[in-house]
Design goal:
alpha/beta, five-stranded parallel beta sheet, 5 strands, 7 helices, Rossmann fold
């Protein structure tokens, strides 16, 4: 991601480097950490070209809340948040209704020892669709590595 004078570095965010060399991806599950960063860049969703992205409906609320929190904490400017919000609403991501995946998310949270089901929704959806989960969240990557394919956005363009 290029330099942006409206935001500050965040040590919690980072790129994951697993490669899917030689694999052809079409369907991917994207999480809030990836979508948040994509919204902060003018062409942040370009990496999804050639992929069909899907996310649980909770993703939109998580990203909106994270944007507001970043402004509140002065990590990004109000102006950048104003540019990012329309990108969220028009993101090339299809919502997946939780429906039957709700129980699967519950089971994933139980299996992985997670108190909350938010991250488990992404993992359960990725498992149900047999699709990789695209995230920038290293904690999620480590926690879900044994139960789902978890990749960083760099792996999407490393084909």
């Amino acid at each position: 991601m290029g330099p942006d004078h409206d935001r500050r570095a965040d040590a919690q965010r980072g790129r994951l480097d697993p490669s899917l060399e030689g694999r052809s991806l079409t369907l991917v599950v994207v999480d809030a950490s990836f979508v948040l960063e994509a919204c902060l860049e003018e062409v942040g969703f370009a990496v999804l070209e050639g992929h069909e992205a899907v996310a649980p409906t909770v993703m939109w609320s998580e990203v909106l809340s994270s944007l507001h929190e970043a402004v509140y904490r002065r990590e990004i400017s109000t102006r950048l948040a104003e540019l990012a919000r329309p990108r969220l609403w028009t993101a090339p991501v299809r919502p997946a209704l939780i429906g039957e995946h709700g129980e699967a998310a519950w089971r994933v949270a139980e299996e992985l020892g997670w108190a909350k089901t938010y991250d488990a929704e992404y993992v359960a959806l990725a498992r149900a669709l047999d699709a990789p989960l695209v995230t920038l969240d290293r904690r999620l990557q480590r926690g879900a590595a044994g139960v789902a394919r978890v990749i960083g956005p760099d792996a999407l363009s490393a084909r």
